[in-house]
Amino acid sequence: MSHKITIKDVATQAGVSEATVSRALNDSPQVKAHTRQRIQELARQLGYHPNGLARSIRVQHTHTLGVIIPDILNAFFTQIVRAIEDAADAAGYDVLIMNTDEHLSRETKALDLMLEKRVDGVIITSAGGPTDYATRLGDTPAVFVDRMPPHKAERFDRVLVDNVQATEDLVTRLIDRGSTRVGIINSAVSMTATERLQGYHQALQKAGMAFDPAIEVNARTDNSNVSQMTRQILVNQRCDGLFAADNTIMDTVLHRIPELQLPPFQLGGFDDQDWFDFLPYHIVTAKQPISQIAQTAVDRLLARIRQPRMAPEEFRLPAQIITH
Amino acid sequence: MSHKITIKDVATQAGVSEATVSRALNDSPQVKAHTRQRIQELARQLGYHPNGLARSIRVQHTHTLGVIIPDILNAFFTQIVRAIEDAADAAGYDVLIMNTDEHLSRETKALDLMLEKRVDGVIITSAGGPTDYATRLGDTPAVFVDRMPPHKAERFDRVLVDNVQATEDLVTRLIDRGSTRVGIINSAVSMTATERLQGYHQALQKAGMAFDPAIEVNARTDNSNVSQMTRQILVNQRCDGLFAADNTIMDTVLHRIPELQLPPFQLGGFDDQDWFDFLPYHIVTAKQPISQIAQTAVDRLLARIRQPRMAPEEFRLPAQIITH
DNA sequence: ATGAAAGCGCTAACAG
DNA sequence: CTGTTAGCGCTTTCAT
Do residues B234 and B187 both lie within one domain? Predict the structure, then answer.
């Protein structure tokens, strides 16, 4: 933020008042067409760039939305961001992105920064943990996407996939394709895990299969564990089906499988990836409706910005089962 | 940006002046330890959040860096961002990310927005095109990463991989692994393409192979073309080696290959991806030194922020050839 | 159609 | 150690 041309500079150069320059630059119809053009031209020549900070502090909004994601290396979130940008762009809003790398401390910092930068609203895919969003956010409008706030979630708008239905459909598909015994490696994100486990159970039940705790495991972030779990389920427990409850788990599973010398089996997971097509075996996924999730989130956020007192709501969107 | 608690509110509540509150909140040693704590506590209770805009406008910097990337769905840029964040974080700087989706108009908007938000400096991976960065940037420090500005590049700091050496090494590796005739589908990004083509030629020359224009093609953004080119080179032209000059080209190539029923062949490309391990055949890649690129970029940017008149420099970093 | 002046929230002299 | 005051760059009444 080095030495910059201000509106004052333009004003003196043009021989008018700062007010007139401001009006001219904002295309106010009050200012005579001729002088308006003259001023705009001059401003361009001088390389004038409006100071958005000063403007925002005056008009009391920034016209920008903040987006906080936990993992920018994860294609799911990256697609979410992309879709949010499209939706926000269509509504004439700017978007600022911050990545927390699944660190609570960085999420806290990210949120604080966005608040300090006075975004008009924020879309959060929480890194989980004990953050008290209610007090932290104050009255900044927020909507949660994909992952819910751990406490008092019902006080916020949230939009996410119908995890239990999607999982039920997915596991059912695995069974339809021939699996007789399908294990699960569940997500480390707690609420997501709970819901997906329920869907898993429903699918087994419908198929008349018994639950077996030995093949229901839950991932911590530790990668080697998931790798071991894969072997445990697919080899020791002789499953011919496996549901990897999320993106990152799937990744580890995929890394382990080749060295396992497995007989034919069915593999299912959440979140579609382009390159699943390249795998030497089939894979079925629950593809989340990313565009709709994003659209719903920004619609809702924008609505709340205009109408802060709206009652919070939860939006559940259906996933689509795809076989690669 | 709804109704918010200001420093004034805290001041009256605490029965002190705004200045004292400001000092207390900024941990100034000038204010008595006791009152400082009292004020900080009170601020917390009131849910006070400093207005960063007001602060920045006053102190004339934001302590934040802007990062503009052309494609957030591309893992390469995503990793770059991630590495930049780490480097910036270590230096105590915040970073704001914007994605342009390869649209010039969005890049222009993104850059303007960052300037309006008065980032202290900006790291740009240009979407290409005729943007005149010199006048657009004014005197905001900038460094270009991976893709150079189309005009007057020498007026800016830029850090990127040594494309020609990396390509030469890569293609040489392909040949070493048995390729006798290796084609190239080159990048749509012009300068990158030029350099990689040169490396390709150098490799052929060293191996005593003749160039054949029939197997030197250049991708436009049109996907179906790349798909056709793949067939053209690998089938019609009977190449037993192919160099896909970037990420997105490789993706299309990979999509086309299975249906081509090819005899053994060597495939090489830029930018490593985790899932290359899962492919049913080997692939060799030139892995860019992402962390170093990012570190160099932010080091340089920070240096330029302190010392704006430094002469611009170009930093070339070596890639690493990897076989999956 | 334009100008003068106030003020957004904050920090930095300058006084005391 | 704390208060008063001015001012960052901009927009917006209120005058004229």
Answer: yes
